[in-house]
Amino acid sequence: MGIFGWKKPDDKKSEAAGAAPSGGGSRGGSAPAASGTSGGGDTPFSPEKAQRFFHHAQTVHDTTNYEYAMQLWLSGLRLDPTSVSGLQKFFVSAAAFLTKEGEKARPSKDVTKAIASGSPVDKYLMSILEWGMRPSEATAAVRSAEQAAALGLREAVEWIGVRAFNSVVKDKKPRKDLLIKLKDAANKAGAYTLAVQSAEAALRIDPTDGELAAEIRNLSAQETMNKGGFEKAGEVGGFRSNIKDAEKQRLLEAQDAIVKSADTMDTLIKAAEEDHASRPTDVAAAQVLIKRLRERGRAEDISRAIKLNEEMYALTKQFVFREQAGDLRLAVARQRKRALEELAQSRPNDAAAAANLDKAQRDYLEFELEEFKLRVEAYPTDLGRKYALGEKYFNLGLMDESIALFQESQNDPRLRAQSLKYLGRSFLKIGWIGEAIETFRRALDARDVLPDLAIELKYDLMLSLLAKARQDRDIGAAEEADKIASSIAIQQITYRDIRAKREELKKLIGDLRTGGSTPPPPIETQA
Hints:
Blueprint: H1 11-16, H2 47-62, H3 66-79, H4 84-101, H5 109-113, H6 120-133, H7 138-150, H8 154-169, H9 176-189, H10 192-205, H11 210-226, H12 238-243, H13 246-256, H14 262-278, H15 283-296, H16 299-316, H17 319-346, H18 351-378, H19 383-395, H20 399-409, H21 416-429, H22 433-445, H23 451-472, H24 475-491, H25 498-513
Helix pairs in contact: 2-3, 3-4, 6-7, 7-8, 7-9, 8-9, 9-10, 10-11, 11-15, 14-15, 15-16, 16-17, 17-18, 18-19, 19-20, 20-21, 21-22, 21-23, 22-23, 23-24, 24-25
C-alpha cells in the first residue's frame, strides 16, 4: 500500500519513466515522463523521478518558457507532492508567466490536461494551478490548503497556509468562513500553530462565537503537545520521517477524525488516561485527556473532565483550567434548560412548566454572569472578556454595568463595532435616545463592518430615530428612519418586521405633517 494512495512503480515502469515526452523538444528540450500519469490511475510516489522533472523545469524557466516550466513543476509534484521546494518554484514560474503574458493570461490545455484525472493528487495540483493564476484571491489560496490537507501534506499546508492566512486578513472585509476552513485544514494536517492563528483571527471577526473560543484552547494545547515531534518542518526528509511510524500515524489519523467510532474513542481515552497517569502534573497530558472526555461526551465523562480541570487548577493555578470547568458546567446547564424548553413547548397550557422554564433561564443567566465575572477578575486587562461580561449584564437587564464594560471594550479595534452595537442598545433601553443614535452612527462608520452586522446596526439606528421622532415630534428623525427602513427593505425585504416598520413610519410622518398627537409607544430595542 503506497503513501496516500500512491504506489511504488515496478522496475519496468521505472525504467520506462526516463523516456522523453513526445513533442518535448519544441517546448524547450526533452524532459522525463511520469509513469502512470495517463488514465487517471494511482500516481507512483517517486521523489527521484520528481527531481528530474524539477531540474528540467528550472532549465526551461531560465529560458523564459514559463508556461512549460509550470507544467514541468506540476509533473514533478505529481511524483512527489511532499516537495515544498517544487511547490515554491512552481509559484515563481507562475508569477513570471503572469508578468510576461498579462494578469488575465491563462495556461494552455497542455498544462491542465496533465493533471485532469480527478485523483486526490491531481485535485491538489489543480487547486495550486488555479491559485497560481489568481495569486491575490484568498478563496483560491484556502482551497489549496484544504486540498493539501486532504493528502496529509503538513509542510505544504504550512507553506500555503501562511500565504492564505495573510491573503484573508489583508482583505478589507476578512471572511470568517475562510479562516474557519483554513483552521480546519491546518488542524487536519497537524499544522497546529497555523490552526490556532486562523481560529484566533476568526474569533476576532466574531467575538461572540463561544464554541470557537473553546476550540482555540484545545488547539493551543494540541500545539504545545505536538511541537516536540514536528520541529523538523521544512527539513529534507522531515515529512517522510514522521510517517514511517505507521502505528503513530494511525493514532494521529484517529485523533483527527471528525466522526469517531465508540471503539476509537475508548482507545484514545485509554491512551490519554495512561499518559496522564504517568505524568499527572503535566499540563499538556491533562489537556489531551480533558479533550478526549469532552469528545466522547458521556455524563460521566463530563463530570470527570470538570473534576480534572478543578484538580489541575488547584495544582497549577492556571486559570485556563478553571475557565474550562466553567464552560463545562455552563454546557450542562444549557442542556437542562433546553430540556425544560422542550417540555414547555410540548405543554403550552402548563403554567408550572412555563414557570420552571422562566426560573431556569434566569438561573442560567445569573450563573453565566458569575462565571464571566471571575474571568474578568483573572484577566483584568483582557477587553475580549470584558466585552463578553458586558453581554451577560445586558442579557440580565443590568444596563449601567453593561455600558461601563462596552465603553472599555470598544477600545479594541477587533471588538469596536460589536461593542458599539451593544452600547447603543444599552443607551436605548435606559431611554438615552440621543446617545443611542450617536453610538449607532459611530458603529456604522467603523471600518470593516461585516454585512450582517451592518444591517443590524441600521435597524438599531432606525429604531432609535423612530423613538426620537415619537418622543420629540421630530419629523426629520422620522424621515431619516424611513429612508433607513427603505434601504433595509431593498437589501433584505424579509429582515425582521421591516415591512411593518415602514408602514408605521409612513403613518407617523403623515401624522406629524398634519399636526396629530398620537401618544408614543414604549421604546423598542433589538433583543
